[in-house]
Amino acid sequence: MSNTRQLDDKVMVEMRGVNKWYGQFHVLKDVNLKVRQGERIVICGPSGSGKSTTIRCINRLEEHQKGDIVVADTVLNNDLKNIETIRREVGMVFQHFNLFPHLTVLENCALAPIWVRKTPRAEAEEIAMKYLRRVRIEEQALKYPGQLSGGQQQRVAIARSLCMNPQVMLFDEPTSALDPEMIKEVLDVMIELAEEGMTMLCVTHEMGFAKTVADRVIFMDKGQIIEENEPEAFFNNPQSERTQAFLSQILNH
Amino acid sequence: MQNANKSPSSRVPEQKTRFWHDPAKRALAFQILLVLVVVGFVGMIVQNTLNNLESRGITTGFDFLSQQAGFGITQTLIEYTESSSYGTTFVVGLLNTILVSVLGIIVATALGFLMGVARLSNNWLVAKVASAFVEVFRNIPLLLQIFFWYFAVLQALPSPRKSIELLDTFYLNVRGFYMPQPVPQEGFGLVWLALVIALIVSYLVIRWNAKRQDETGQRFPAYWTASGLIVGLPLLAFLVSGAPLEWDHPVLKGFNFRGGMTILPELAALWVALSIYTAAFIAEIVRSGIEAVSKGQTEAASALGLSQGKVLRLVVIPQAVRVIIPPLTSQYLNLIKNSSLATAIGYPDLVSVFAGTTLNQTGQAIEVIFMTMLVYLTLSLLVSAFMNWFNSRMALVER
């Protein structure tokens, strides 16, 4: 896949001068980020660098204290109405899947369409089956999450987000909790999603995925964006010392 | 092929195991020994008891239940006079025990859930008040709390002549809390009928709402509609039928009030103490139940765009309830059994009037204690059975 595609001019996510503190600790320092429709961003960096916090600010799982965030033309402020509007348009996949253990796979997927989009149940279940088929897990629809493997659970989690027909997908280390042999099945689904033109922000250490899929790779350290570039330039010719150090650690083990 | 399986064992020389080295045989020997000891012990006790009863001239059996009791009881839910039988005493005591248990369970559950949720509140003051409530009431012996409410609070109230009055209809004094008793007149049946209809209609409305959501995705506030129906319809029936209800007001006659309804201070003290003490434990159970649902669940549900209320209702509560129910059952059983502390302040519960007064008067210790124990066992098993049924309906099918 070519990384130099012609992108839409529409801006999907914009963060301007975003700052966040946990008490005294300054987690995010002046983060500026513009994501256009259909763009695929990979965010990497050492642990504690604020990369998860950055994408969790986009759907208000974390509250930022300074700066502006605009998602799909909606300003993210303390207005609950705006927050819920944004969350409807932004899907999120978590490191630990976070499927609802008391509901079947099908019910997990149909829950939000029924209660948020007010879709009739039969139709919601149809949508759910469509996306379960797309992540190749439709035969498990009536099982409970606890009966599935980690890779299967993560694919269900992706399907669950897609059922809301989001405009942006956030991935928070989606493969970090998986056994090595299950990483591929999840990455394959993510690559397919990227090929279909989904706008994606992905926090991950899977550098192979970044090379093949990303339009831009962002390196964060100590709450700041240190470097951002196209994958080829980023991996072959990193500018800052910290990026070089990070890449040498992560690529040569 | 079978020969191949057998051949290794045939090569090993036969060894005879002594029977006390064989775990199975040894276990059997111990079982037999234990049964002999138990049977012998029980037999000895029965023999001993029968001998003692005979030498004191006490007849065994349940004939005493039809004898005249000859003592009064301060609170009776059924017709009872001093000339009633001991059998009636038993029923009166049983009903009083059930009354205070049911009242206690209702208030303890409501207060416990409120305090448990409050303890998780983001509001500093609310959370601290709830923690203080839990830590104080769960760490003071129940008997002491009953004494506190009875002697320190309720016995400090004024005499009937100096009652605290409320709107000229409610009176609070050292003898209890007096209020008017509703006396249904002819035609009041219509109100009951309206209530039954309202309940049935509400049930159907809620069912229909769920079905409608399945089909069209739309919902309307069915629970508010139902609440309105349950209150409104009987009220309408009441007004249409010309308000067929009269009130029997309590009136001060001599040194005490006559007429109306009374909550005795003994009942009030026991009710309050049992409710608060158990609520403190229930609050902790509720808190731990909610905390047992991981933060990731709330995050995932919120990220899907569900509102806070729906996150609680569809994701958090269904998972928390499963953790809460089993220990909640234990608390209900504790409350029922703890209600026997009634004896200490003279509330006429089963232990007080039956295993107390009746036992003293008849001397039928074995029968009385046996019946009383059987009652508590039955009540507890019934509550357990109900809660197990409820739990199995809620149980996690997860794996």
TrEMBL record, chain B:
It is a multi-pass membrane protein. PROSITE patterns: ABC_TM1. It is found in: Cell inner membrane; Cell membrane. One of its GO terms (molecular function) is transmembrane transporter activity. The keyword Protein biosynthesis does not apply. One of its GO terms (cellular component) is ATP-binding cassette (ABC) transporter complex. One of its GO terms (biological process) is amino acid transport. Residues 94-387 form the ABC transmembrane type-1 domain. The keyword rRNA-binding does not apply. InterPro entries: AA_ABC_transptr_permease_3TM, ArtM/GltK/GlnP/TcyL/YhdX-like, MetI-like, MetI-like_sf. The chain crosses the membrane at residues 27-46, 90-115, 136-157, 189-210, 222-243, 263-286, 368-390. Keywords: Amino-acid transport, Cell membrane, Membrane, Transmembrane, Transmembrane helix, Transport. It comes from the Bacteria. Its main location: membrane. PANTHER family: AMINO-ACID ABC TRANSPORTER PERMEASE PROTEIN YHDX-RELATED, MEMBRANE COMPONENT OF AMINO ACID ABC TRANSPORTER. Belongs to the binding-protein-dependent transport system permease family. HisMQ subfamily. This is Amino acid ABC transporter permease. It comes from Oceanospirillum sediminis.
